[in-house]
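For the sake of clarity, the format in which proteins appear in this thesis is described at this point. The record quoted next illustrates the convention:

___
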Amino acid sequence: TWQQALKVPVTIGLVLIFIGGLAYKFANFREEGRVQLFIEAIRKAQYDVAYQNWDADARYTMNDFLQDWGKDGYYTKGMHDARVTDSSGKGSSVVVYVTIDSLKYPVALRVDKETLKISFSPISKYPSP
């Protein structure tokens, strides 16, 4: 019957959709995990650990970092909760979006796929917080 003939193709299609969904969900797993570790270090006030994960240069010093991410920093003042909510791959990097409860919009962080170093993303699908 035609129902029997469709069983195998429909099953294969559903399996492929499921696998595609999993691949999409976990495509940026490493980069999202690195940002999650960064957030945990900030929560625990381990700023030196967090700064080691930051793609810093001579222009963005530890003092600058603390003004942004320290106890009462620009992004962390009044923060109780922060979590990774989205990500999108962009060539050699991934933009990971972090929702911080004290900010109106998520913060876009760029993670280099090779080094896993974090920096501010020059592009974001949300307005600047």
